[in-house]
Amino acid sequence: MAFQVRTITTAEHVAFNASRPSVSFLQTPAWGEVKSEWRRESLGWFDDAGELVGAGLVLHRRLPKINKFKPLDKTLAYLPEGPSIDWASDDLAGWLRPMAAYLKKRGAFAVRIGAPAVARRWHGATIKAAIADPAVTRLSDVRPDELNHATTRALTQLRHLGWLPPKNGDAGFAAGQPRWVFQLPLVDKDEDQLLKGMNQLWRRNIKKATKAGVEVTVGTAADLPDFHRIYTETAERDHFNPRPLDYFQTMFRALQAEDPDRIRLYLAHHEGDLVAATTWVRVGQHVWYGYGASTTAKREVRGSNAVQWQMIKDAKAAGATVYDLRGITDTVDAEDPHVGLIQFKTGTGGEAVEYLGEWDLPLNHLLYKAFELYMSRR
């Protein structure tokens, strides 16, 4: 079945998202306002009866200047962690071809999607065993605990339709999203069960924070400067480039305008001192841990563990079925510096999840090759 694809209003898009158990927060119209440097539009998929059955946020970024040529009025059409369509369909062509045709008419030289379909899952015990095995360096080489055959079919269909996994990514242009994430399932678990599911270190640190008198509260946009102060301290300590304060102010303003409880700011204080802070994003039954920050001083009071535990409890209370700690790599090599990230997150009692990931469809092959060359040299 071929669907009709056309622009929909913000209100139509918000209503569609609300009718689903959840969609990625990167597929909300509000996220398009956060990414103000991209031209944005909401697309809708309509069936023969005229019913809206799919939706997606498209971010258009102009082709950058390549060598001596001026930028052309051509764009990369990017749907981060989207679109929200039936990824289990045996006929993805019916969904994707009309979208590609529409975006090509809109001036896109290529389309990038982030198929939000889970391919494989590894439970905590499997991850721990892999880390302990010196012969294993990648989780992708370990037999998964769950394999989604519908996603395997989707991968085959994407390749048949000419879609390609992107060779290069750049946060300033493609803003690629993680293919590997870590999630804590919340279904059929009360607080005691969630706490017992954590490893001994996590439980001990949560208990230590409570005993030390760490207090976790939900702040407001007025508290963002305090968050940003320790966020920049974290960036300097962990060697990454921090986002400016106005980025977070724009994020809060846009997301809360769409839904007052779309985003929260959590603050952990110890004896009046801010020691940790995080952002929390919710769409339907899915909660994401966004940004985190902590001070070098008073790390022994374990404010970061306290604030994570509060967010997990609040996610459960809000009706979420999953608490998402976002990106990881698939390394389980004890000698790899990235292994600490998956070890830390595994301590929550959750599982590693591999998505189908991001795929490109070149619409103008000459411009797409030039774009790939440009990205490889940055």
From TrEMBL:
Alphabetized GO MF terms: aminoacyltransferase activity
Pfam families: FemAB (PF02388)
Gene Ontology biological-process annotations: cell wall organization; peptidoglycan biosynthetic process; regulation of cell shape
Keyword tags: Acyltransferase, Cell shape, Cell wall biogenesis/degradation, Peptidoglycan synthesis, Transferase
InterPro entries: Acyl_CoA_acyltransferase, FEMABX, PG_Glycine_Bridge_Synth
Keyword Acyltransferase: yes
SUPFAM superfamilies reported for this sequence: Acyl-CoA N-acyltransferases (Nat)
Acyltransferase recorded as keyword: yes
Family recorded in the similarity comment: Belongs to the FemABX family.
Protein name (record): Lipid II:glycine glycyltransferase (Peptidoglycan interpeptide bridge formation enzyme)
Organism: Microlunatus soli
Organism phylogeny: Bacteria, Bacillati, Actinomycetota, Actinomycetes, Propionibacteriales
